[in-house]
Amino acid sequence: MSQTGSLQGSLDLLVLKILSRRPKLHGYAIMTAIRDTSGEVLRVEEGSLYPALHRMEEAGWIRAEWTTKENGRRARMYDLTAAGKKQLALRSRGGTQ
């Protein structure tokens, strides 16, 4: 696997793991959760996260839903699907599917 593919795979795994523990998060909350979970060692930028979220949504691993927050702002909330849970289990065991 190329370095780019490896990095994408690692980001996918991080996002799947975060969403398995904390469902229905928006993109900024996912970025914050990755930073906080890693003890501020890892920082994911929007330019990496949102394409990854789109790619995982197209693969059927996550679903996205627009909601309106209490402050009236719209946010796209992400949640893990059954296929995403399966993918997380495969990748957690060291598989690369």
In short:
The protein is an alpha+beta fold and 97 residues long.
How is this structure best described in words?
- By secondary structure, the chain is α+β, with helices and mostly antiparallel strands.
- It has a single domain (3-92), classed as Orthogonal Bundle (Arc Repressor Mutant, subunit A).
- The chain is 57% helix and 16% strand.
- The chain has helices at residues 3-21, 27-37, 46-59, 82-92, and strands at residues 25-26, 62-68, 74-80.
- The protein has a 3-stranded antiparallel β-sheet.
- A hairpin with a 5-residue loop joins strand 2 (62-68) and strand 3.
- The longest helix is centred in the first third of the chain and has 19 residues, at 3-21.
What are the defining features of this structure?
97 residues; alpha+beta; Arc Repressor Mutant, subunit A; disordered N terminus
Provide the residue-averaged pLDDT: 88
CATH homologous superfamily (4th level) name: Winged helix-like DNA-binding domain superfamily/Winged helix DNA-binding domain
Strand percentage lies at: 15-25%
First CA to last CA: what distance?
12 Å
Please identify, by name, the CATH architecture: Orthogonal Bundle
What's the story with the biggest beta sheet? Answer: 3 strands, antiparallel
Low-confidence stretches: 1-5
Global shape: globular
